[in-house]
Amino acid sequence: MTDLIKQQLKDGVLTLTIDRPDKLNALNNAMYTRLADLLLAADEDEQAGVIILTGGPSCFTSGNDLVDFLQHPPTHLDAPAFRLMKVVIHLQKPLIAAVCGAAIGIGTTVLLHCDQVLVTRNAKLRMPFVNIGLCPEFGASLLLPRRLGHARAARLLLLGDGLDGNDAVNWGIANEAFDDGEQCLAAAEKIARRLLALPQQALRQSRQLLKQATLPELEATLREENTLFIQRLNTEEAKTALNALLNRNTDKHPSKGNQP
User: Fold this and answer.
1) N or C: which end of the chain has fewer CB within 10 A?
2) Which residue windows are coiled coil (predicted)?
3) Confidence check: pLDDT of 198 > 50
């Protein structure tokens, strides 16, 4: 199988690129496993100082590959997507997201764990979990209300409303918005270079201090969310909603079977 997660290590910056354009960078179980493995390796690699996560200049990720998701749903807390979440929240090195275009589901929730988030103005952030009979994941039910307040978090998590790049900056999910993908990627590289120029031990200890107070609560929230997520998948309303979405997407885009 072709490697759908590209990696490039250049002068201390490791760039991980989701590379599945024919599926709008939809993530399957093999890709979750690959991402988790690469992040774990980066944490141990002295040559990698900062990590950039991107989907390239056009699309970040459209979320779960629904065909793979329905055929191989998570059934335990060590499922590939859940394992990736654990790896990300325990990551020791700075993580920058360069988000161009769609960032659906986990494509948005992962941003809550990044140290810097750069977006294009046409980015589309959306977490339609309730819309498909599921519940929030990746600690979003804890982190979003704290960052945005309950009312705004509810608009995103309960109603499934979306944000463009400018909204993401104004709401505090992203740092800066850019006119196109190339500018966004270049800005991510620039910030990575600034981070690399700093005293590295001080940087990592300071990053740990920023995150450590929330970590125990976040770990507990992940366990609860993921347990409920598995339970929700076995409900009739989730099965009905997911199959309806898959059929709708297949009718519109026969080559794409992922989240909206």
Assistant:
1) N
2) none
3) yes
Q: 147 — alpha (psi -120 to 50), left (phi > 0) or beta?
A: alpha
* Amino acid sitting at position 80: P
For 69-115, the pLDDT digits (tens) are 999 999 999 999 999 999 999 999 999 999 999 999 999 999 999 99
User: The tokens of 199 are what?
Assistant: 């005293």
Q: Is the pLDDT of residue 255 over 60?
A: no
The residue written with tokens 């944490």 in the block is 43
Mean pLDDT of the chain: 94
Task: Say which CATH number the domain at 177 has.
Answer: 3.90.226.10
For residues 246 and 229, give the distance between their C-alpha atoms in angstroms, rounded to a whole number. 18
By residue count, the chain amounts to 260
Tokens of 91: 């990551």
Number of domains in the chain: 1
Alpha carbon of 235 to those of 36, 72, 135, 225: distances in Å? Answer: 29, 16, 12, 15
pLDDT, tens digit (0-9, with 9 covering 90-100), for 143-162: 999 999 999 999 999 999 99
Q: How crowded is residue 160: how many other Cβ atoms within 10 Å of its Cβ?
A: 15
Alpha helices in the chain (DSSP H): 29-44, 66-71, 80-89, 106-109, 140-148, 150-157, 165-170, 181-196, 200-212, 215-233, 236-252
Give the domain range for residue 20.
5-252
Q: What is the pTM of this model?
A: 0.94
- Using DSSP bridges, classify how beta strands 13-18 and 50-54 pair: parallel, antiparallel or unpaired: parallel
The pair of structure tokens assigned to 223 is: 């366990």
